[in-house]
Write a structure and sequence with these properties.
684 residues, mainly beta, 22-stranded antiparallel beta barrel, 6-stranded mixed sheet, 35 strands
Length: 684
């Protein structure tokens, strides 16, 4: 039996589980009711300096349900991109340890392979190998994050069944004022870097440089340690070994206004991260290491925003180089010293135009090629693969005369031609599919908007899922492609000081690909599940105002979902392994006299099972973060300084495959900006 390697946990009774499910709903519901009652009397709060990001909902169809996060507020905090994404209830974040550890993100019950990751609308995560690592990305290079749950607009032709996470590095706003940041905290974790912008005639430039590192030697209880007669129950804590991380990153972006009608944009990004990989016993002798290097180059020429007819041409090249060193056979499926390179290059053509008064047309054509080569220098074995993509998407949209109604139909066509070679193993194949998508929106009142969308999808297995054999994973050459359908129904309320959004979602998968881990060896393998159904509801709200003399911002997000295995046999009715049943985030920010800012963040995740039989439940997670910040106005500049405590209650959680996470951690951070401003993050 393959399943997730567990710690020591016992199953909860069904009644207790229903109680746990009800508590987050009641809490968030009561909070929303209180916010609604107090909104009418809310007064503007003091100007904020830093804290929870201003989450916006786009007003432009077909993006009714996009969540856009302004990341500027977090450059002055010791926080990672994965920590920020974990604050959103519909996202599932899985880590293999502390700072910089391998991290995957998925949306609404989907797997990480079912979630597309883009940079400025262009591919970032390779589909040939998969397994994109968010732990190797720096939040400091980003200006925003857009989350599309279950669907994507036409401009993102690589839309996946689990939705899209689009990372943005824009030159808009004052985020490119000259600034520097630094932080230091537990487990010798530190970050430092700088950003600056410059305008020379019609060209605007932005440069960001940074470095970070962590020993990740936090203490934990290791149930796999060697037997010690002085500690027969293995309850003594020990430091995490061979888990250190160091990272360097650089980014250059530019925009050239050629004339009032046309602009040219460019991006060059490079990052390097080296990290140790602990073995199952947390051995002192562990030496396994993974080094990754990522390079992105993008060029874009197109009409300026706001033109009636839009034309864009985008070209890109992305390279990921991985060096995996386990020559001593301490981790995984055998001795390896593997060097691999993944390349993807292509172009995207975008065209949009109105068709009369009420109709519009938008289309995208994107051909690209991915290549993959890997050589194990221990035995000289070489594997190589290639995938040629063709993605075509077009949307015909309609809006009523007063713009109260919007509707559209989108067709996406995908074709992929694969070629894989490993020694005498030679495989070729091709597949194509055409998928429809419908969207509808109604502006019922000035504050209330209702929307719906439905669509179908196909996802091909990655080469790694079919043929991989690195670390704790082996391939399954018999995997079939996933197929499925999804439906989303939502409403959004926005008024001065308060916004709320409620969305129900459902998806049905055939031949769903699920990665499962053997309980004894810890080795994972992807398997097709004959059928799976995901149903859920997600609620979010934000309120800003004054409570007496305190300026206040409150945010609440909650998700309840059911991920049912619908295959016949013993697994029928079971939850898919590794998916949560409920998740809640509550964030509170108070502005105190003297320009002090006090914030508290709480995340709860529950209802996760390590295994397909649901016999091994993971413990529920409850993580609190508290912090205090204050801006200091200096001569011609601003210094934002603060401290924070993460995992305040010192809860010791385990992620998938029994990977321990840090307990209580302390951090101090500063951001210095060469002009007077406050970080725009939590407007009242």
């Amino acid at each position: 039996m393959l399943d997730f390697a567990p710690g020591r946990h016992t199953a909860q009774p069904a009644a207790a589980r229903r109680t746990v499910l009800a508590i987050p709903c009641l809490f968030v519901g009561a909070w929303l009711a209180g916010a609604f009652i107090t909104t009418a009397s809310a007064q503007p709060s003091p100007a904020p300096t830093l804290a929870l990001p201003d989450v916006q909902i786009s007003d432009h169809a077909p993006d009714d349900d996009v969540v856009s996060i302004d990341t500027a507020a977090y450059r002055a905090r010791a926080i990672e991109l994965s920590d920020l994404l974990d604050q959103h209830a519909g996202l599932q974040v899985r880590r293999t340890g502390g700072f910089g550890s391998f991290t995957t993100v998925s949306i609404r019950g989907a797997s990480s392979q079912q979630t597309s990751v883009l940079l400025n609308g262009l591919p970032l995560a390779p589909t040939v190998v998969g397994g994109f690592n968010f732990g190797a990305l720096s939040l400091k290079d980003l200006s925003g994050v857009d989350i599309y749950a279950g669907r994507a607009p036409v401009d993102l032709a690589q839309g996946a069944p689990g939705g899209v996470i689009n990372l943005r590095s824009d030159l808009d706003g004052d985020g490119w004022a000259t600034s520097g940041y630094a932080s230091y905290g537990s487990a010798a974790t530190w970050q430092t870097g700088m950003r600056t912008g410059l305008t020379t005639g019609p060209v605007t430039h932005g440069v960001s440089l940074g470095t970070a590192a962590s020993d990740n030697d936090y203490s934990f209880v290791n149930p796999n340690r060697a037997f010690d007669p002085n500690d027969p129950d293995r309850q003594q804590e020990e430091p995490r070994r061979n888990a250190d991380v160091d990272r360097q990153q650089g980014l250059y972006v530019a925009q050239w206004t050629i004339n009032p009608d046309w602009t040219l944009g460019a991006l060059a990004q490079h990052s390097r991260q080296s990290q140790g990989l602990p073995d199952a016993r947390n051995s002192v002798a562990a030496r396994t290491r993974l080094t990754s290097r990522q390079t992105n180059v993008q060029m874009r020429v197109g009409t300026t925003p706001g033109r009636r007819r839009e034309h864009q041409v985008r070209g890109y090249w992305h390279r990921t180089r991985l060096d995996y060193d386990d020559r001593q056979d301490q981790l995984g499926v055998g001795a390896q010293l593997t060097h691999s390179i993944q390349d993807r290059w292509g172009m995207a053509l975008i065209h949009a135009r109105p068709l009369g008064t009420h109709w519009n047309w938008r289309a995208r054509l994107e051909p690209s090629r991915e290549t993959y080569t890997a050589t194990n220098q221990v035995d000289g074995r070489t594997t190589a693969g290639r995938r040629d993509h063709l993605d075509i998407a077009g949307r015909l949209g309609w809006r009523s005369s007063r713009d109260r109604w919007r509707a559209g139909i989108t067709l996406r066509h995908q074709r992929a031609d694969d070629r894989y070679e490993a020694g005498n193993n030679h495989r070729e194949g091709s597949s194509q599919s055409t998928r429809p998508q419908l969207d509808l929106g109604w502006q019922a009142t000035a504050q209330l908007r209702l929307y719906a969308h439905a669509g179908a999808h196909v996802r091909l297995p990655t080469f790694f899922e079919r043929y991989g054999d690195r670390g704790l994973f082996i391939g399954n050459a018999d995997l079939a492609a996933e197929q499925g359908r999804n439906l989303n129904l939502g409403l959004r309320w926005r008024q001065a000081g308060w916004s709320a959004q409620l969305e129900a979602y459902a998806s049905e998968l055939n031949d769903a690909i699920v990665t499962q881990y053997d309980v004894l060896s810890g080795i994972g393998r992807a398997e097709n599940v004959a059928g799976a159904t995901v149903r859920g509801i997600e609620l979010s709200s934000r309120w800003s105002g004054s409570l007496g003399w305190l300026g206040t911002t409150l945010q609440a997000r909650a998700a309840l979902q059911d991920t049912e295995n619908t295959t016949d046999g013993v697994l029928a009715g079971k939850q898919l392994p590794g998916r949560f049943s409920e998740k809640v985030f509550i964030g509170t920010t108070l502005w105190l006299p003297g320009r002090y800012e006090l914030f508290h963040e709480w995340i709860h995740v529950g209802g996760v099972f390590y295994d397909s039989l649901n016999s091994r439940p993971a413990p529920d997670q409850h993580e609190h973060t508290v912090g205090l910040r204050r801006p200091f106005v200096l001569a011609g500049s601003t210094l934002d300084a603060g401290i924070e405590i993460r995992n305040l209650t010192d809860e010791r959680a385990e992620e998938f495959n029994a990977q321990p996470r840090p307990g209580r951690q302390f951090f101090a951070s500063v951001e210095w900006t060469l002009h007077h401003r406050t970080t725009q993050g939590s407007h009242p």
